Amino acid sequence: MIQKVTTLNQFIIEQQAAFPNATGDFSRLLHHVGIAAKKVNREVNKAGLVDILGQAGTENVQGEDQQKLDVYADMTFINELRASGECCAVLSEENQDIIVFKDGMCRNAKYIFCMDPLDGSSNIDVNVSIGTIFSVYRRKSAPGEEVGQQDFLQKGVEQVAAGYVIYGSSTMLVYTAGNGVNGFTLDPSIGEFCLSHPLISTPSQGKIYSVNEGYYVNFPDGVKKFIKYCQEKDEETKRPFTSRYIGSLVADVHRNLLKGGIFIYPQTSSHPNGKLRLMYECNPMAFIAEQAGGMATNGKMRILDIEPENIHQRTPFYTGSKNMIDKICWFLKNS
Ligand code: AHG
Ligand code: MN
Ligand code: MN
Ligand code: MN
Hints:
There is one protein chain. The chain is an alpha+beta fold and 335 residues long. It folds into two domains: 190 residues, Fructose-1,6-Bisphosphatase, subunit A, domain 1 (Fructose-1,6-Bisphosphatase, Chain A, domain 1, 2-Layer Sandwich), CATH 3.30.540; 126 residues, D-Maltodextrin-Binding Protein, domain 2 (3-Layer(aba) Sandwich). 30% of the residues lie in helices and 23% in strands. A hairpin with a 3-residue loop joins strand 7 and strand 8. The longest helix is centred in the N-terminal third of the chain and has 22 residues. Bound molecules: 2,5-anhydro-1,6-di-O-phosphono-D-glucitol and manganese (II) ion (3 copies).
């Protein structure tokens, strides 16, 4: 029996049909995100064979040494977003200020795009999974008006869509537009993302905790107590849990989304407000977590409710299975 294959483009069109007054703008934007993902995937797969590894010799606004693939992914997504004509400006981890598209169609486009073009850069040269993370909002300014940083300072609850690409043992694009989370696996033989994980639902309890324990000494007491809780033996709650930490947010979050678990990146001595960036790492991952039945918090409040003050701001980040988030919040509150 021939199995029905639903490509990303077919899925987008089917989803659009559910919105009677949809114009197809978002569908076209997402189509170009898929093209950019395929182009980056092509370079990731060749990494090691062509001169795409190693440092670009430049530093980004974060003070990080940019990897060549950081720069390639950034340029590729920006070019595709401009080509879509459906995006008027982009906020990227790799650029100090927003990139405004002033040409023709783009000036009047209604969407703005936040992205971490290449997440997990420290893993690029050692062949460990990396990814791209993105978030789509409606602009606040009127079409044709000047787009500014103010357009981007919106709470995560305002997201139109959020998603990530994981360049791993296979390449997947996972996204939500507010109607659940769906995962598409790239079939290189036909060059299409095909629906492989419909309506992902994350377990309410998991057995995996993901944290860089190298920073333990400066963790908040509540985090230290939660880690100890995970390591204690207890039949009823099937502890001790398993520690898994890849060092690429996309890979750690994707594994925990499918299997259940909790990802923790609290404030540390070198990052007193946490290391992960609200607009293009935490908000998109929080939207996905909640749409899959999980949670995402900064330890005190819902990530999606945080009022952003600057486009590159950082936040402590806890995300994953509902029961595990509740547990760590209890420890944080009672320590
Ligand atoms: P990026 O490569 O986009 O700068 O992000 C790296 C982030 C994230 O992917 C990961 O969860 C975290 O950095 C790992 O940080 P540590 O190496 O401090 O654990
Ligand atoms: Mn970086
Ligand atoms: Mn990142
Ligand atoms: Mn990055």
